[in-house]
Amino acid sequence: MSTGGSCSTSTPSSAADRSVALSELLEHIHGYYKAALDRLPVEETPTLIPRLLDGGVCFGLLDPVSNIIANTVRSFEPLPETHAAEEPAAEEEGERSRRGAKRKAAAEEEARMIRDEAMSEIATDAGSIYCLPPILRDARMRKKKRTVAQRSLEGLVTFLVCYFRHLPCRSCPISSPTTEIALRCAAIAASHPAPANLAARSLSLASRLDQVPQLLTIDGRLSPDAINRLYHKLLEAPVVEQLAASPKPLQLATVRLNRCIKGNSSLERFPLEFTKTLRYLLLHKIHALYLKAIALLPRDALRRRHHRVYDTAFPSHVQFEVDVISTKSLGRVECRSLNGLLALLGNLFPALSEHDAMVHLLRSDASLQDVVFRAMQNQDMSSASYEAAYKAAAEAARHPQPDAQAEFSMSTSPKMFHIVESALRINRTLKLSEVELITSYFSQKSYPVKSVTSVPKLTPHATKIVSYNKRNFLATQDFIRRKVEAALQKYAKEKVAS
């Protein structure tokens, strides 16, 4: 089951493993829906059933059963008030007792039939799930073909991919925009009728953990009155102070997980059939590192140097400034970096498989020093030098000057690292003078500059393609810049107003 957004064809063995994993997941989800139906007063308020089938997804910031109940109740209309039927005044005690028992048995049988019928519309076969996470743009159109259990599973995977985009998985504060965005994406993937509404009310419940358990976690079946009180509680705005305090709902989720999993051996394994997923996750981590590095550069230096290595060590022959950085070009250099890291580890530890090398990189936060230390615990190092390993890495990353890059990678300066580490420690941007100081250090090294092969004159057709791509880039850059400037202006006005 890939979490990278692709739906590639699986081999027979991996397809079978995928089917087993999905069946187990769906079995858990079906159990949550059965538990939720047992607690909802569906016989007194039958309108809860269509609400559950439409929007009662099992994801949110509470436990799955509570999420189903809350997402079912959070609706567009208040639930009708119910009143207890009055007993006849003049009736013998025995007859009244017999009538009561008969009505109770009939109500229980009716409730059982209602719940069984609802479960038949909830249950999902693993064979109906083709792609995880689902393609968001198709989710709304495919709603009629998917049960709420299937949509819940798709929403759960989408939430995890969005929330834990950069590994290792660290919980964000509930007040973080990441949490709300992940909830919205999950709701869209699950074809929820009101994604923004679900996200807002999930946050509202999360900010009232001292009150919500009284409504959702009591034993036994909820009364119609409790459902009404929960509905009105969902309408209240989130308590901002509580949201900003801590990621308590996710901490509670961790506690629930620890109750279900004995030890952590199952979390340490990463099956071979999931190697593609492992690569996606590792690329997400490397992407986060690139964003962190980009944030260190001053704006002017970033505009001129984002597309180079170090311009003094490997000088560019064309000056090129940009206002935005293309995610495609960034993605390419990230993939090349991963290929280089894997080649370096393979050169140092010949017996280390690529799969295990990626596991080491993922667990070590892509820190090469930590990975080498981990690998040395169980692997024998080759007799190859570090310089040869760095050269192999440069070649695998398709660097234009692998020999120079190898020497460059081996060159370390305590002064340079002090500058970078200082900026990282206090979360500040490097000064332009500091960038120039780092550049001057490398300018002392003598790297051979590869001669540039003259480019023949482009054909008219090729010229049109280049011109079109340039115009398209500039138009996209202008559009993004205007959107960012508008968002910053709106944020500044809201901050002043508050």
From TrEMBL:
Domain of life: Eukaryota
Spans annotated as Disordered: 79-109
Listed Pfam families: PIR2-like_helical
Coiled-coil residues: none
InterPro entries recorded: PIR2-like_helical (IPR046527)
PIR2-like helical domain mapped to chain residues: 28-168, 310-370
Protein name: PIR2-like helical domain-containing protein
Species name: Urochloa decumbens
